[in-house]
Amino acid sequence: MASDIKHIGILTSGGDAPGMNAAVFAVAKTANNHGIKLSGIRKGFEGLIDNDLLPLDPNEMQRLMHQGGTILKTARSERFMSAQGQNKALRTIEQNKLDAIIAIGGDGTFRGMLALSKISNIPFIGIPGTIDNDIAGTDYTLGFDSAVNTAVKCIDNIRDTAESHNRVFLVEVMGRDSGYIGIHSGLSCGADAILVPESNEDINYLLHKIKHYNSEDAFIVVMCEGDELNVEQVSSKIRKVNAHIDLRIAKLGHIQRGGKPSAQDRMLGIRLGVLATKAIINGESGKMAGVCNNKPTLRPIKSVMKKQSVDAETQDLLTLFCG
Ligand SMILES: Nc1ncnc2c1ncn2[C@@H]1O[C@H](COP(=O)(O)OP(=O)(O)OP(=O)(O)O)[C@@H](O)[C@H]1O
Ligand SMILES: O=P(O)(O)OC[C@H]1O[C@](O)(CO)[C@@H](O)[C@@H]1O
């Protein structure tokens, strides 16, 4: 049976994430193969409000898929949080005769799509795109693997200089209120301590360990930005238990979000882009395209919002290597 879908709109929203362009390429390729027109909506929900659309060509996207960031641009849209903004977005959908929307972003983006679905019947599918990896219903989100690889490279570099000077380094990584980037980069770099938002106890392990630190080697602490203590507070607690150490702070910041997507993020983008487009063609809506146990999976978006980074296995690893 032929699909009713003739025109799909696609947007990227929230923080950019490496691999978003690969997902857009896969959507463009799949749509094209099914004779469906694809329009890019620029700057996330801002473009939906401002009627800022551009045609997307799969051949051009093929040449751009290896780039970091998002060629569609992205935004955190205050205007879309209001009924007025959402109604304007609805007008754009009607004026351009969009039959469906694919939205790539984090849980905020999905909340935005759920808000839109309350005033419109437009079918939509979400693709999880955020370096934070904090979305349930998928093993990984787009951009997480690349961000962790970038953080690992930076922390390895920091270790070189830390070992040369026998210094303590506090390295702050991104992840908002989730510890995935901190845990994966910290364990991969042999960190001496990892402070995650999900635990209040980890600071005590760190203080106990650093009390006995004799400044004969490097001591690397990876701190998640969403931890209950900030780097300055942790630094002053450390100095109180061990006044003689030489301590430096490094905040990795947005460097973690840029750069070319890893092969894993490109593959994830390709798989999720194809899955999302086929889902739209098959009449699905309100779902997120993800991978669970490495299998393509569609889950209702309402059920996939947030996930916690510390499960039993991770806790064991943290205790073994950082406890
Ligand atoms: N409850 C909501 N109602 C309407 N729109 C929303 C809602 N929550 C979020 N949005 C829209 O979604 C946009 C993206 O959300 P947010 O800034 O939280 O990023 P995100 O999608 O979670 O991505 P990241 O994890 O990379 O930060 C917001 O800027 C806003 O425009
Ligand atoms: O670029 P912005 O808007 O400052 O957002 C930073 C936040 O976005 C993320 O990079 C992705 O959600 C978080 O890790 C970080 O806290």
Automatic annotation (TrEMBL):
Transmembrane segments: none annotated. Pfam families: PFK. Its cofactor is Mg(2+). GO terms for cellular component: 6-phosphofructokinase complex. Keywords: Allosteric enzyme, ATP-binding, Cytoplasm, Glycolysis, Kinase, Magnesium, Metal-binding, Nucleotide-binding, Transferase. Pathway: Carbohydrate degradation; glycolysis; D-glyceraldehyde 3-phosphate and glycerone phosphate from D-glucose: step 3/4. It comes from the Bacteria. One of its GO terms (biological process) is fructose 1,6-bisphosphate metabolic process. Its main location: cytoplasm. This is 6-phosphofructokinase.
